[in-house]
């Protein structure tokens, strides 16, 4: 149950019953949330609308609620000119804890389902995935998991780059190697080296460069041999990407790939439709769309090129075709593009053109979800020493290696297999959490020491907090299923933890307001901190039987919430560490 919404509804009901049907009462968490304090501060606005004394209306609302179904669960007090201070008593909290515990959804209700497409990850298949792909991939995947859990139909769209001039060099290089008898499967094992070799040859050998340009034309003309080479390269590239997704516990599969090339047959008809609707202007031989809302610094109109002067189609054309497919064929309610913030102009033009052309309707929400850049400790883009992009596979391997060393130091009694398994979960979790715990719109510094720390707001800290809670049950020689004592909240630390746990549903709803996964990260960190305060000040295993049982149930609910929340972030937990 969303506590805030629940209280909002109760106060709305009271205002309606008092003849203030158009009034709104806004309930917010007050300055002492650890004691279940909320405040209804919308009574002032309601009184102003009704031309009533705010304090008198507040008294009437409070009296109405005191006489209703919540009379034994809430304590209300009038404060100031017309605020209503609300205190949730322990009977209310215990009742909701019982509901949350018995619910495998932890009190989270399903939304009215919408069809939502998430465009994320979208690497260029010409080379291997690098550190720059982490943000789109991790943030997008977390959004997918949360939206699906909330009840939406989610379409994962991996709009990979598999077309364009750069593939001419790659195909010409493949043809060269094959003619020399080289084993392409071996050569393609490292796509980055393969790409660099082809690019270097293109720059240094004019004959090869001419051959590469011929391959571009052949590819676009549907030449059989060229398409055969291209298909082999794309298959290998997708295999490389899937290996990264599997390693990082990303929910994308090959079935979610709908590449740029998938829209080739739509490009000519889409351009024809734009021309029919009078949206195309010829500019220096290129076909462009000029819209009034896109003006440069000097007041000049900014063109969106949909066909180049040589007849080729740029990304904008492909993206318009994709938007049309998503809007009309898939009929999505929303399409969310998790793309680098530097692409804002391109995407804003895309949405505006698609709407102007009638490819997407006013009711369909096509939206850019931008993010910042990953930086090194010097505040510059995170790259290798020679200036190249750091491979994502290398980052993942490094994380697991570092985690293995930490796990070995922390618990040397684990078997080698146990250490390897835990290191993979901790290392991968650390990378993803370091990404997700930051505001997605800002740049952040990639720091191994911070992300793998067992202290502070990190994945290892939360994973360790989970294992510590589970170890309590091993020491108690019992399981959560074997405990049937009712909840009982006596100490302030118990109440603080209980209230935070009950805020899980509203936390998830807050996450998708602006797709900020850091809201969930911060919530889970607060749960773990409040749990530690509770455990230190409230004896569990040494308490009397009834108290022991009640506190063990609070322990179990804390562990379930941590595990579930981390799961929505795409991060696993372990039972020991």
Provide a descriptive summary of the structure in words.
This protein is α/β, with parallel strands linked by helices and 577 residues long. Among the domains are: 3-88, Gyrase A, domain 2, CATH 3.30.1360; 166-253, no CATH class. Helices cover 53% and strands 11% of the residues. The protein has 21 helices and 13 strands. The chain has helices at 3-17, 43-50, 54-66, 90-101, 133-149, 166-179, 184-187, 191-204, 206-221, 224-247, 264-276, 315-329, 344-356, 392-410, 416-436, 448-451, 459-476, 492-502, 504-514, 518-537, 545-568; strands at 27-29, 37-40, 74-79, 83-88, 115-119, 153-157, 281-283, 286-295, 301-307, 334-338, 365-369, 374-375, 444-445. The strands form four sheets. Strands 1-2-4-3 form a four-stranded antiparallel β-sheet. It starts with a helix and ends in a 9-residue tail after the last helix. The mean pLDDT is 91.
Task: Give the SSE map.
Blueprint: H1 3-17, E1 27-29, E2 37-40, H2 43-50, H3 54-66, E3 74-79, E4 83-88, H4 90-101, E5 115-119, H5 133-149, E6 153-157, H6 166-179, H7 184-187, H8 191-204, H9 206-221, H10 224-247, H11 264-276, E7 281-283, E8 286-295, E9 301-307, H12 315-329, E10 334-338, H13 344-356, E11 365-369, E12 374-375, H14 392-410, H15 416-436, E13 444-445, H16 448-451, H17 459-476, H18 492-502, H19 504-514, H20 518-537, H21 545-568
Parallel strand pairs: 5-6, 5-10, 10-11, 12-13
Antiparallel strand pairs: 1-2, 2-4, 3-4, 7-8, 8-9
Helix pairs in contact: 1-3, 2-3, 4-18, 6-8, 6-9, 6-10, 8-9, 11-12, 12-13, 14-15, 17-20, 17-21, 18-20, 18-21, 19-20, 20-21
């Amino acid at each position: 149950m969303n506590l805030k919404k629940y209280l909002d509804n109760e106060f709305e009901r009271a205002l309606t019953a008092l003849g203030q049907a158009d009034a709104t009462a806004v309930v917010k968490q007050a300055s002492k949330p650890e004691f279940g304090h909320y405040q209804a501060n919308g009574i002032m606005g309601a009184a102003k609308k009704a031309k009533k004394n705010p304090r008198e209306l507040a008294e009437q609302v409070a009296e109405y609620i005191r006489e209703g179904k919540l009379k034994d669960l809430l304590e209300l007090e009038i404060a100031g000119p017309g605020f209503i201070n609300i205190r949730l008593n322990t009977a209310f909290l215990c009742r909701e804890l019982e509901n949350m515990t018995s619910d495998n959804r932890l009190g989270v209700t399903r939304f009215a389902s919408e069809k939502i497409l998430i465009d994320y990850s979208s690497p260029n298949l010409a080379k291997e995935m690098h550190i720059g792909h982490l943000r789109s991939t991790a943030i997008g995947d977390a959004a997918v998991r949360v939206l699906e859990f909330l009840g939406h139909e989610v379409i994962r769209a991996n709009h990979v780059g598999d077309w364009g001039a750069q593939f001419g060099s790659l195909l010409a290089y493949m043809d060269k190697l094959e003619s020399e008898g080289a084993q392409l499967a071996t050569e393609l094992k490292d796509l980055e080296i393969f790409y660099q070799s082809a690019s270097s040859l293109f720059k240094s050998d004019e004959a090869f460069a001419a051959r590469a340009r011929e391959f571009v034309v052949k590819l676009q003309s549907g030449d059989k041999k060229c398409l055969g080479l291209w298909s082999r390269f794309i298959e290998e590239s997708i295999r490389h990407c899937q290996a990264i997704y599997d390693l990082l516990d990303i929910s994308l599969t090959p079935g979610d790939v709908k590449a740029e090339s998938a829209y080739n047959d739509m490009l000519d008809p889409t351009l024809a439709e734009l021309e029919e609707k009078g949206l195309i202007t010829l500019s220096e031989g290129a076909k462009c769309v000029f819209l009034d809302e896109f003006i440069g610094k000097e007041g000049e109109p900014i063109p969106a090129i949909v066909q180049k002067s040589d007849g080729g189609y740029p990304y904008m054309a492909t993206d318009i075709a994709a938007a049309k497919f998503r809007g009309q064929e898939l009929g999505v309610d929303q399409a969310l593009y998790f793309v680098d913030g530097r692409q804002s102009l391109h995407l804003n033009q895309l949405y505006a053109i698609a709407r102007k052309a009638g490819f997407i309707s006013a009711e369909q929400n096509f939206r850019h979800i931008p993010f910042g850049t990953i930086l090194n400790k010097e505040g510059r883009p995170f790259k290798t020493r020679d200036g190249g992009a750091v491979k994502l596979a290398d980052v993942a391997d490094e994380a697991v290696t570092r985690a293995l060393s930490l796990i070995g130091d922390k618990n040397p009694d684990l078997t080698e297999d146990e250490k390897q398994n835990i290191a993979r979960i901790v290392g991968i979790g650390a990378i993803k959490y370091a990404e997700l715990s930051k505001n997605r719109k800002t740049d952040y510094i990639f720091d191994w020491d911070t992300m793998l720390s067992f202290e502070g707001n990190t994945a290892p800290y939360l994973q360790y907090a989970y294992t510590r809670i589970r170890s309590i049950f091993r020491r108690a020689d019992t399981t959560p299923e074997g405990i049937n004592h009712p909840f009982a909240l006596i100490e302030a630390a118990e109440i603080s933890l209980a209230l935070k746990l009950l805020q899980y549903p509203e936390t998830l709803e807050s996450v998708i307001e602006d797709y900020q996964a850091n809201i969930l990260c911060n919530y889970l960190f607060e749960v773990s901190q409040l749990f530690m305060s509770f455990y230190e000040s409230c004896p569990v295993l040494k308490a009397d039987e009834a108290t022991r049982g009640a506190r063990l149930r609070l322990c179990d609910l804390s562990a379930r919430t941590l595990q579930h929340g981390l799961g929505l972030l795409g991060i696993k937990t372990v039972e020991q560490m």
